Task: structure prediction
Amino acid sequence: MSVKLKIAIGADHAGYEYKEIIKAYLAEYEVKDFGTHSPASVDYPDFAHPVANAVESGEFNFGVLVCGSANGVAITANKHQHIRAAICWENEIASLARQHNNANIICIPARFVSEDLAKEMVTTFLSTAFEGGRHANRVDKISC
Result:
């Protein structure tokens, strides 16, 4: 029996629709939605920080954050010491973020990728292992 991955997900108003699509797509996983819960205008840190906290604490294996450009949620999440949030706009970037950077949160720019690509990147991100080796030394140097 394999352990079901636990995924924390969140978005601002610009990412709300994609968050809902991705959340439904991830039905096989244990997913906790940290909001937002409507397309009404909100502040992205209000959702990025709880997702980052959930991943950083170890309660969740990975996080998914969505906003218009992915920059706001990535900047916010990366303020957390043990978070490596990666902005991904194509599938190869999602793979490399896991393989080389041991990223633990994928940040998706809803205004710049298709729904299908967003789902594909999330699948790749969640199924790609960290390579370790020379990359582990580099990742270890990230913390301040």
About this structure: The chain has a mean pLDDT of 95.
